[in-house]
């Protein structure tokens, strides 16, 4: 399964810069930038978006990320002119363009299908699809709306925690971080690792944890114990490296 990624921005520099960042972490993924107008100004180009999609037509699926509302409108117009087969393989994400592209690219690099790549992009901001992050943040006071974990309730299985050591040589870099996010996302629980949202790829990568670092995993929710155990096992395994 190969997934290509198209970055649509009003700025050519933003689109190309986003692609350049993602390539540092996902060198095998096909990424295309479609930024600015045909005259080199600020705006979006129907022709550039169409050409970008066609450039990625050889992949099994294409994920498009856009920066602003009118970029989505131009993309939608371009989709209307594609043949049915290619149109069916193009998926537009509403994730933040930079964070979403990086997360999507890492997921594609690790062999994720279109659904996995879209899910990774959606998780980049620390929220899940359909979640009102603002309301959650107000209720918890924490980034991404993840509730705090305490010892209270641990006996009934709603909360769980574990502390493990990173054993892989490169620490919690892009690929292991992506595996961590994918595993956390499988469980019905709010999960944090060293204080940040375990379902946010960029938050985990920002920790910059090296080999030998201590990883504290905390979870709350119906599947908290299973989530913590699975993530602890993943860390102990060295992420297969």
TrEMBL record:
Highest taxon in the source lineage: Bacteria
Residue ranges occupied by any PTS EIIA type-4 domain in the UniProt entry: 2-129
Ranges where the record places region Disordered: 127-156
UniProt cross-references to CDD domains, sorted A to Z: PTS-HPr_like (cd00367)
Ranges where the HPr domain occurs: 159-241
Pfam families: EIIA-man, PTS-HPr
Keywords for this protein: Transferase
EC number assigned by the record: 2.7.1.121
UniProt enzyme class: transferase
Compositionally biased spans, kind Low complexity: 127-141
Assembly information from the UniProt record: Homodimer. The dihydroxyacetone kinase complex is composed of a homodimer of DhaM, a homodimer of DhaK and the subunit DhaL.
Function: Component of the dihydroxyacetone kinase complex, which is responsible for the phosphoenolpyruvate (PEP)-dependent phosphorylation of dihydroxyacetone. DhaM serves as the phosphoryl donor. Is phosphorylated by phosphoenolpyruvate in an EI- and HPr-dependent reaction, and a phosphorelay system on histidine residues finally leads to phosphoryl transfer to DhaL and dihydroxyacetone.
Listed name of the protein: Phosphocarrier protein HPr
């Amino acid at each position: 399964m190969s997934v290509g990624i198209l970055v649509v921005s009003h700025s050519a520099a933003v689109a190309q810069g986003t692609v350049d960042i993602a390539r540092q972490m996902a060198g095998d993924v096909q990424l295309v930038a479609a930024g600015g107008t045909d005259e080199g100004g600020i705006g979006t180009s129907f022709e550039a978006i169409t050409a970008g999609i066609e450039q990625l037509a050889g992949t099994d699926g294409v994920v498009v990320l856009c920066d602003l509302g009118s970029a989505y409108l131009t993309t939608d117009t371009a989709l209307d002119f594609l043949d049915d087969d290619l149109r069916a393989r193009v998926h537009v994400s509403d994730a933040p363009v930079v964070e979403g592209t990086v997360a999507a690219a890492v997921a594609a690099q690790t062999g994720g299908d279109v659904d996995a790549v879209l899910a990774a992009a959606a998780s980049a901001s620390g929220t899940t699809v359909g979640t009102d992050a603002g309301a959650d943040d107000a209720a918890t006071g924490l980034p991404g709306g993840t509730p705090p974990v305490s010892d209270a309730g641990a006996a009934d299985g709603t909360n769980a925690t574990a502390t493990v050591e990173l054993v892989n040589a490169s620490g919690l870099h892009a690929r292991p971080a992506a595996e961590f996010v994918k595993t956390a996302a499988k469980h019905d629980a709010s999960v944090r690792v060293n204080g940040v949202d375990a379902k946010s790829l960029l938050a985990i990568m920002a920790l910059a944890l090296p080999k030998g670092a201590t990883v504290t995993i905390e979870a709350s929710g119906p599947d908290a114990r299973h989530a913590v155990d699975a993530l602890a096992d993943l860390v102990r395994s060295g992420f297969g490296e």
